[in-house]
Amino acid sequence: IESRRLRIRLIEPDDLPITRAWRNQPHVREWFFDDRAVSTADHQDWFDRYLLRDDDFVFVLEERATAERVGQISLFDIDWPQAIGEYGRLIIEDRHRARGFAVEATRCLMAEVFRDWELETVAAHVYADNTPSLRVFSRCGFALVRTEDRICRFEVTRGTLRRAE
Length: 165
Hints:
By secondary structure, the protein is of the alpha+beta class.
């Protein structure tokens, strides 16, 4: 999948060291619902199980101009018959923040899943005080559905995304 500045591709074995490093940074871990540090063995075990799934897709973001990896995003817990999935695990590498990559990648991936994967709705769950993620969701057309115990549920639909682009 490509956008103006990004190539969005599925995670590969060679990506595991960098995605684990991104995920283990304290300022990133604090926004994950499971905020424990991930060991190399646990990350490999997760990847081995991930390869067997058909409802979980982790993507690495590469800047097209340099082929440098700048982050990751995911679409997971896909219920194919109901045409709904969950968006998250968004990480932008520190030195590439504030460049619009999170919004660009989110819009591009959502357009892809609504067009080619035939999903109707994508949900996202995020802590209510995760301001950067809230900003991305707002700019990409996600609507707040509910807030419970500090966790906000957002949704975007095929029609809502078009208006946000």
